[in-house]
Structures are given as C-alpha cells and as structure tokens.
Amino acid sequence: MFAQCVWKYASSLLLVALLCCILSPPAQAGKSSEDIRCKCICPPYRNISGHIYNKNVSQKDCNCLHVVEPMPVPGNDVEAYCLLCECKYEERSTTTIKVIIIIYLSVVGALLLYMAFLVLVDPLIRKPDAYTQPLHNEEENEDARSLATVPTPSGARANTVLERVEGAQQRWKRQVQEQRKTVFDRHKMLS
After folding, report:
1. For this UniProt entry, which residues form the secretion signal (predicted)?
2. pLDDT class for 162, splitting at 50, 70, 90?
3. 123 or 96: which carries more pLDDT confidence?
4. Looking at the domain assignment, is residue 178 inside a domain?
C-alpha cells in the first residue's frame, strides 16, 4: 500500500518535472545560449600567457578569428597566434541534463521517504513475541536446556513479511545452535 503511494507520488513529481522542462520557452531556435559554444584553447605566445576563450557562435564561425576577442597580439602576429589556438565546437542539451537530474532526485527522495516510513512504522509493526524471550533465555542457559524444547506456535500463521522473516531467522538460529552443540559434544567425546 505504501509502495503504491510512493510510486504515485514519484510518478506525478516526475511528470511535473518533465512538463516544466519541455514547456520552458526555447531560445535561439531551440538552442539556449548554454547549449552551444565554441571553445578556443590558446597556449602561451611570446610574452602573452595562455588563455581559454568561450563564445556562442555557429559551427562555421568556430575559429580563432571569431572567438578570441580582444585579440591579444598585434595585427601582423594574429595569424601565427591563431595557428597555435585549438578551437572546438561543443553542443549539449541542458534540457536532457535537467530531466536526468530531476529523475535522479525524485528516486532518491522516494527512497528517503520510504526509509523514513520504515523507521517510523517498523516499531509499530513488530509486536513483542511471547516466544522470543524464552528463546533468548534459552541461549543464555544452553548448558541447562536444549533449544529444541522451545515450543513453537504451530497453529499461528505469520501475517506479515517481518514475522515470516523473524520465524525463518529463529529456525536458522536453532539449527546453528544444535549443530554447534553436536560438534562440540563429538569433539569432547573424541578427545
């Protein structure tokens, strides 16, 4: 029931986030200014230090002459300086990045809500079991009694997953205790 609630909440949150990203106003014919750029990396040249230049230009204008402004060298050295620069046209989709981040945060938020629910509700779900306390006392007094004599509720059915897991865990503990006792007894008899 809670998982369905969390799923409905997460799916509605995801739908709202997708609609916000899709319906945002497009800029520059579908590309925002952050989506396209030309990046020129220019190494040091004579007494000028290296620098990285970014500018929003089209792919055909992605070269040193259009991106590097202001030009750090005088007119006759521009060609030599531009030959050293490496320019790359970069394109990305910020809408896709936003959608991925929103999906990731929605999933993490849903898991945190589920964890909080389990932390708050788990003590209410677990009922004090009348058979658990004798079992713990029996482990402390294993020399006096055997764990196999602990009465198990044959008519009672496990109603929740937690009760079934606890029952399986208790059976496993009893089996391990019996195996330990058998091994230690045999070891004492052999020596």
Report:
1. 1-29
2. confident
3. 96
4. no
Q: Could you tell me the residue range of the domain that residue 49 belongs to? A: 35-92
Q: Is residue 52 part of a domain?
A: yes
- Based on the domain organization, do 62 and 109 belong to the same domain? no
CA angle 154, 160, 163 (to 5 degrees): 55
121 shares its domain with 79: no
Q: What is the largest CA-CA distance in the chain?
A: 101
191, part of any domain = no
Q: Is the pTM of this model over 0.85?
A: no
Tell me the pLDDT tens digit for each residue of 109-136: 999 999 999 888 877 777 665 555 555 5
- Number of structural domains the chain divides into: 2
What's the length of the chain?
A: 191
Clarify whether residues 112 and 71 are in a common domain. no
What is the gyration radius of the CA atoms in the chain, in angstroms?
35
Write out pLDDT tens, residues 15-33.
665 556 555 554 444 455 5
